Amino acid sequence: MVIQDFSALDRFEAERPRLRALAYRMLGSAAEADDAVQEAWLRFDRADLSQVNDLAAWLTTVVGRVCLNLLRARQTRREESLETFTSDWLGAADQDRVPHEEAELADSVGLAMLVVLDRLSPAERVAFVLHDMFQVAFDDIARMMERSPAAVRQLAGRARAKVRGTAAQSVDPVRRRHAVEAYLAATRTGDFEALLTLLDPEVELRADAAVTGATRPLTLQGALAVARSALAADLRARFTAPALVDGDPALIMAPLGRLSLVIRFAFTGSAISGIDIVADPDRLRAVDIALA
Asked: In what residue span(s) does the RNA polymerase sigma-70 region domain sit (predicted)?
C-alpha cells in the first residue's frame, strides 16, 4: 500500500463532494454514488501519484470509469427490476420510505432530469454528464472511455438531443404547460379551489390497473371527484415533476429517480378535460420523456 502524505489526503477530501455529485448524476442512486467514491478512494490510496499533475482530473477519470462499469452491469438487471420497483412504490404513499438524503439529492438534480438520464445508454450518460454538467473536455473523456474524441462528441450530442426532446406543437403549448404545473402545485398544497378552476366540469380521469393494484382500470368523472382524488395523492406529489411525455406537457412520478407513473392531460380550450394515469411497466417503457 502506498501511504499518501496528509496534503494529498486533504485534497481527496476536498474533492469528495464534487465526486459524489458527479457519481450521483451518473448513477441516480446515493448508495451507488457513495460506493463509486469509496472505490476511487481505494484506488487513490493504492496509487503512486508522484507523476499525477492534476489530481482532480485523475479522480474524475477514476470515478467515471467506475460509474460506467456500474451502468453497464445495471443493464442486465433492468427488465426484472422495473415491475418490482413500480408495484412497490405505488403500493405505499408514505414518503418516509425514501431516505431523506436521497430525496434531497434528487431534488437538487431534478426528478425529470434523473428519469431522462436513466433512459440514456451507459456511454451516452457518462459522456453527457461529464461534458455538459461538469465541463470535462472531450479529449479527456475519450481517454477515460477509450474512444475517439469524435465518438464521444457524438455520444454527448445524442444524449443532449434526448434530454432536450421536442417541444409540443399543439395549440397554446405554453398555456397547457402552465396548467399542468398549476395542477401539480395545487395538489402539493392541497388547494381544492385552485384544482377546480383548472378542471373542465366534465373532466374524466382514467388510471390503469397498475396504479391501484385492482384487476380493472379506474375511471372517475366530474371535477369534484377528480379534484378529491388528486388531493388524496398529495404525499406522492413530492416525487412528481413536470416533463414532456411524447412531446406533450405531463407529470411524471419518480421516487429515487426511477420512473413509476406518468400523468397525461387532455384539454378542451384551456381547461383540463382528461387525465390518463399510467403505471403499467410496459406502457412506461414505450413513452418518450424529455425535460419540460
From this structure: 12-75
